[in-house]
Structure formats: C-alpha cells, structure tokens
Records
---
Amino acid sequence: MTHRLISIQRLTKQWVNRLLVAFALLTGLLLTGCAGDKSILDPAGQAARDIAIVWWVMLGFSTVVLGMVTLFWLYTFKRKEVTRTPDEERRIARRWIVGGGIILPVASIIALLIFGVPTGQRMLTLPLSDPPEVIEVIGHQWWWEVRYPGAEGGEVVTANQLIMPAGEPVDFHVTGADVIHSFWVPRLGGKIDMVPGHVNKIRLEADVPAIFGAQCAEFCGTQHAQMHLYVEAVERDEYEAWLAARQTDELSSLAVNDQQHEFAREAFMSHCASCHRVAGLSTGGEGPALSDLGSRASLGAGVIAMEEGAVSTWLKQHQALKPGNKMPPHYDIDPATLESLGAWLETLTP
Ligand code: HEC
Ligand SMILES: [Cu+2]
C-alpha cells in the first residue's frame, strides 16, 4: 500500500516538473512579444518610462495578491475541521468581507493612484516658458493626416508619417474626422482619443532620434488594424530642414514644373484632385496629401512598403490590399494611365 502511494507521489512530482518546464518555455515565448517598435516595455521617452514603471508595479502587486490568494486556497485543503457557533461563523465572514472586499481594494486603488496621477500629469500640455512644437494629428478611416501649423512660410501637411524633433517636448493636438480614433505611440507614452469636433492634447518627448511605430488604438471600422503611423524623431536642425523642404512653394515647383509627367498630371486633375492635395495643384482633403508621397516609408497607412512601382500597384489593387478603404476603385481608368500616375507620384519627393 505505502509502496504504491510513493510511486503515485513520484509520478505526480514528474508531472509537476514537466508542467513547470512547459510554463517556463511558454512564458519565454510570450515575453518575446514584449520587444519591437510598438512595445510599452521598451520606453524611449520620460512619459513612456513612467508608464512602464506603473506597469511593472501593477504586475508585481497583482502577482503578490494572486500568490496570497492561492496560498489561502491551498490552506483550506490542509487545515483541520473545526466546529464553530453560527455567531463565530458570521463574525469571521464579516472580517473577510470588510478586510478583503473593502479595505484591500481601496488601499490598492489609492496606492495605484499615488503612482499613476503624477504620470498622467507629465503628459498634460501645461504652459512652459519655452512653448513646445505643436503637431496636429487627425484620424481618418483609415489613415492619418499630420499638420505642422507652426512651420515658417505656411502650414505643412503630410499623411501617414510623423516627423518630430528629438530631445524636446512636443505637443500633439489630435482630433477625428469621422469616428473616434486613438493616437498611440507606445514607446513614447500613453494613448489619447481622437474625437470628432473636439481637440485633445498630449505632450510627448523622444529622448534621442529613432523610428517608432504607432497604431490607432480605438476600434474605428473594418480596416482599424491597418491604420499604422510611421513616427520618426530627428535632430532639431534635420527637423527644420524637413519642414522647409515641405513648404507649399517648394513643393509646387516640384509638381507643376515637371514637363515629363504632364499627361499624368492632367489625369490626376480630372480623377484624383477632388480628394488629394498636391501642393500647387489641388487642395482636396478627403484622402491623404500626396505632395511628398515619394519620401514615405509605406502606402495605405502601412499596408505595402514604398518601393519602385508600389504606387501603381496600390492604384490597381488597393481594394484587394485594404478591402473597404474609402478610395473608390478606378476601373474607369486604363492601366497605362494608372501606371503613369504612379510613376509621377513617386517623383514627388522634396
Ligand atoms: C473619393 C476620394 C478619392 C479619390 C477620388 C481618390 N482617392 Fe486616393 N485615397 C483616398 C483615401 C480615403 C485614401 C486612404 C485609403 C486608406 O489608406 O485607407 C487614398 C489613398 C491613396 C494613396 C495612398 C496614400 C498614402 O499615403 O498611403 C494614393 C497614392 C492615392 N490615394 C492616389 C490616388 C490617385 C492617383 C487617384 C486618382 C486616380 C485617387 N487616389 C483618387 C481617397 C480618394
Ligand atoms: Cu482605429
């Protein structure tokens, strides 16, 4: 009898060990998901660092609570049966409800508030003696409009890419054009809702020049997942040069004085200008501004990489690449015209 008990014990021990190994492997695998250009655990600015600390504190605290509850639970199997009067039973029950059901959660929430409130405070756009750069970001189904109202010589407009100065605070003024979206650059800080008819503000800072991923963080329709934003922080002088090259005058000479692509430009004016802005040619705002399209990292808010021929691929297949997107299919335009349109748009790079 004892012999058999011992072998059962050994068997269970083996299984427990196997489970532990499987658990460790799985955890390791899951942790690989914590890296990458959209990871909150790889902060690249003060606001994001504060949030990461709050995250680790919450993880630690909830692990302790889970451990304690598990120990209590295991203890109930071990402890000897005791007989109590109904009065005693009631008193013990009340102690658990008051202690575990009221005091513990209230204390935990207060502790988290003490950690969390200063973190949120840092992202408020409070007045500074040296007013920060302002960048406006507008969420559309399913792309990003980015405006630089402070640019010398008139506002600069681009789309699906956000270039910002590194090493200084930047105020983002965000809103939505159609439904609620959410602006989120995980490595720089918290997310903020983009609500139609209302401007929300958040202050973020990138420590050093780098490229970050950003993503719409509020479900906004079928292509919500395909609403990526390329964010790049660059040195101050590089930022100013980038802006200067996108001044309307600079860009219009690029678009207008190009003799080689006259045919494409005419096709653009009759088929595309109502929705797309090309500085000097059109002001359409229903779709992304295309004035500097050639210098983008991707097309369709991250759907395909920008490379030679990518624009005409987009023009011919965009409804297959990003089903339901708000650009109508162009069956009425012959493929040769679409190709020349694509070739011309790719040259639009300051
Ligand atoms: C009814 C408005 C509308 C018309 C007309 C239109 N587009 Fe678009 N276009 C859009 C919208 C909206 C998007 C964004 C789609 C998305 O990513 O969800 C877009 C995206 C694009 C993109 C990708 C831009 C980027 O930043 O990734 C290109 C290039 C483009 N359109 C070119 C054209 C050309 C060329 C024409 C004319 C043949 C045209 N469009 C006609 C609305 C329009
Ligand atoms: Cu969304």
---
Amino acid sequence: MKIKNYIYLLITIALSSCGAELQQITFSEHIAPIIYKNCSSCHRPGEAGPFSLLTYQDAKSRSALMKFVTKTRFMPPWPADASYTHFVDEKVLTQDEIDLIARWVDEGCAVGDSSEIPAIPIFPQGSQIGTPDLVIKFRDVYKIKGNNQDQFLLMRIPYEIPEDKFISVIEVIPDNRKLLHHINAQLLSYEFEKKKDVFPGRVFVNLDSFPDKLIAYKELGLANDDGLTFPMLTQSVTNYLPGVTPPLYPDGIGGFKMTRKGALFLKDIHYGPSRVDTTDETFFNVFFAKQPSKRPIQEFQMGTFGISPTVPELIIPPNEIKTFTSSYQVPFDISILTINPHMHLLGKTFWAYAVSLKGDTIPLIKINKWDFRWQYFYTFKKMVKIPKGATIHTVGVFDNTRENPNNPFSPPQLVSEREGSMRTSDEMFQFIVTYLPYMNGDENISLDR
Ligand code: HEC
C-alpha cells in the first residue's frame, strides 16, 4: 500500500514538473536519434570530439553544454550555409531538433523507456568509412620538436604488396590532431624491375633544411635504381585538413592504380607550432576497388598556387577588413564532385558560384562564418554541371582587425601570401575543385554513400 502511494506521488511530481499537456521529451525517443545521427561519429573513442556521446549517461553528464553548443550552432561543426547548397554528410540540426534538446535539458533529462533506446550505431574502428584493406604507417614515429615553429616536411612511406591493386580511396587518420595542419599525398608507382628495394632512403626531410627539392628527393630515394628516372606519380591521392573525411565515389568514378612496389609521397606535411616535444603517428587506410576506374578524377585550384590569380594581390593591411576575388572561365563542360574552400586565420567569409554565358547563376558554397578548424572537402549530393564558357567566381573576405579573435598578431600586422609559404600566420585564398569532363546524365548520379 505504502509503495503504491509513493509511486503515485512520483508520477504526480513528474507530470506537474514537465507540464501534463506537453509530451515528455525523452532520451530514448527524441534525443538519442539526434545525437547518433549528428554527434557520435566524432564524439566516440579515437575521434576528434573531446568526449563520447554514445550513452544516456554521456549525454546527461554533458547536457547543459549540449544545450549551449547546439543553440549557438557551434556543434555540430558545419560552416557551409545549408540554405544555399547541400552536401553529402551534411550535419546541421533543424530548429526543431535544437529546441527538443533545450527542452529535454530544461525538463531534467528524462531517459524515457530505457528498453526503447535505439542501438548505438556501429562505427568502424579507426576509420570514418569502414574496415580498410591495407593500412600504411609511418616507418618511424615522427618526433615533433617543441621549438614553437611551424614544420614542413616531405615524407616518403614505401610499401610492397603481393599484386597490383585498384584503389577507391585513401583515408588519413590523424594521430596528433592538434598539430597536424595538412597533408597532401601523392602516389609513387614503381615498375617492378626498375626498383629492387623500395625501402632504403631517409624517412623524411624537413623543408627548412632542404630548400633544394632535387637534393631532398635524392635523400628520400625517390628515383628508380638508375638514379636518373622517376616512377609514375599520381597527384592528390589523399588530402587532409582538420575535419576532413575523404569523398567515396560510386563504382567506376575516381580511384587509381597502386603497383606492387610503391610509396606514398607526402609532398606537404605541415605541423603547427608546439611548445613541448611531442610525436605523431598518423596512418593511412587504403580501400581497394573492385574494378579499375573508368573516369579518373581531375582537379584544379583557383587563387593561391592556382590557375586563376587572386585579385587584388593577397595583401591584408593591419586593421582592415578586405575582400578578394578569383575568377576562372571553364573551357569545356565539367561535372563538379567536390569543392574545398581554403583560407587561414584571418578568413571571415567565403562564397563561390558560377555564372553561365546565358547569365544563369549556379550556387556552389557560402560560408558566412569562416572557421579555420573545419575545412571540409564538400561533396555535392549529385554532380553539378558547369557548362563550357561559364565563369566560376570566388569571393573571400579577410578580417585583419583586433575584433578577429583568431588574429595571430596583436596588434594586427600586415599579412600576405608570401611566396610559397603555407605558414598559418601567412594567408592563403584558395578554392580546390575536383571534377570530371561532363557526360550525359552526370547530374543524376548520386554521390551519397
Ligand atoms: C565533425 C566532428 C564533430 C561533430 C559531428 C560534433 N562534434 Fe562536438 N566537438 C568536436 C570537437 C573537435 C570538439 C572540441 C572543439 C574545441 O575544443 O574547439 C567538440 C566539442 C564539443 C563540446 C564541448 C564544447 C566546449 O566548449 O567544451 C560539446 C558539448 C559538443 N562538442 C557537443 C556536440 C554535439 C551535441 C554534437 C551533435 C549535435 C556534436 N558535438 C557534433 C567535434 C564534433
């Protein structure tokens, strides 16, 4: 009798505190699905998020912060304006979802019927994609000196596999996520007879000590055994920037061949400055393809290092907010797959669109609040056709005032695109586009995994 009364009392309290007319917001029914879809891929062991969001306990113990970061749209991180264009794996909460999280927190984080909590999604270990067919690791742990300097390296990571393979994608798994700023990797494919042993040679060279690239290549042992000729080189087999997951295209699109003897050649590996000695053991997940690619991906970049100049020259005087553009007229019909806007710490907004000869505007991407930490390669849900003669325009605004909390200098100093420098305290204005020559029907091919 006593227990029954007690239960009635509890129910009355519960009903009065959450308003009997409103449906109660529970973890099992409302919150878990939002978190599993939008948060857990990063908030799980080994990934970028600083804590896990997998269980009711995880969510409850971070509930106030969750309410705050979703309301301010700090999380999930998705700099692209979802009212302008959409991309694969877009992570943007609806206003309803944000309100649900807020109500759930305000009402005391009810679990609901715990037997109804959806199963925690199964994420691949050490990958955002799946189980790799091959893992390529650094030959040695890389030791980062605590000298507070940017470090730029060339690294050659040799491998030997039993037979030639076709590759669909290579995924970079960053180890030292704090310091690893970017990687651009190429693939060296040796003809079997021309290189007896791919393993000798230095593991890496620091570009500051080897300004002459040819000497650096020699130290790394890039050449064939004759010392004169070089193996075949495939450009940009994988790129890494913070937050990047590589695009995985449908069968027959993209991909490349990997010969039995070869090496990943990290043409650019950039670590940001560190005050303490530390290490990095980034590795590479390789996924084989069933068939050779019929349509290899092509790439161009606009702006810094690109096929179209930045206008005016990228010089940003202190205490100024300044706009730059770059425009490129497309010489034949192309199908765009993926785009990557790139700026450094002074970036404020980024906008790209194309205008056809008929005057139609094709929206590409709008970033209203640039965030240096999240520089995705945005993959369109379906390829976007840019007709011959259309011009792609990019517009970047840089904020070199004190109001920019990411300004690397205080007081602000003149910042520019110094010849060949990728230092975080110098600037870049770049738009990387991967594309295929257009084929009929491309705009109907889904790029969603
Ligand atoms: C793409 C990866 C990614 C996704 C998706 C993501 N997070 Fe995060 N989250 C991070 C990283 C990285 C940090 C650390 C950021 C920092 O310190 O600046 C973080 C930090 C946080 C913090 C702590 C903020 C602070 O100031 O301490 C909270 C809370 C959080 N995330 C909640 C969420 C929620 C809720 C979602 C889903 C709605 C989500 N995150 C989705 C990567 C992610």
